[in-house]
Design goal:
The protein is mainly alpha-helical. It has a domain at 2-63. It is 58% helix and 0% strand. It has helices spanning 2-21, 30-63, 94-101. It is elongated and about 65 Å long. It starts with a helix and ends in a 6-residue tail after the last helix. The relative contact order is 0.06. The model has no long low-confidence stretch (mean pLDDT 76).
Length: 107
């Protein structure tokens, strides 16, 4: 119940700010402000779950569309790389290569 009143107050403050900033928005008294905040809260409570359920397939598709067969949330492999640099040492990170080439700092 406390969270409901907190959201109601925040929504009412947002409506009040909109009325103060936007020339076409007008609020006559505090009762109108509270009724508007209540209506926005009810619409948000009804519409939000419906939109969430309707967009769930799109959300799942975008999480897994990285151009590979592994899902986008999979951690990178911790296995060492099989390719080696010309000197025969294992592949280094971009930061190590930048540091040794003088881009990120002096040798």
């Amino acid at each position: 119940m406390r969270g409901f009143f907190f959201r109601l107050i925040i929504t009412a403050l947002g409506l009040w700010a909109a009325a103060a900033i936007i020339p076409g928005v007008r609020i006559d008294d505090w009762r109108t402000l509270i009724i508007g905040a209540l209506l926005l809260g009810i619409v948000n409570a009804v519409i939000r779950p419906i939109i969430l359920i309707l967009t769930l397939p799109l959300t799942v598709l975008t999480l897994c569309s990285r151009g590979s067969t592994s899902p986008g949330w999979a951690p990178p492999s911790s296995a060492p790389s099989s390719s080696a640099s010309p000197a025969g040492s294992p592949r280094r990170s971009w930061a190590a290569r930048a540091a040794s080439s003088g881009i990120a700092g002096s040798k």
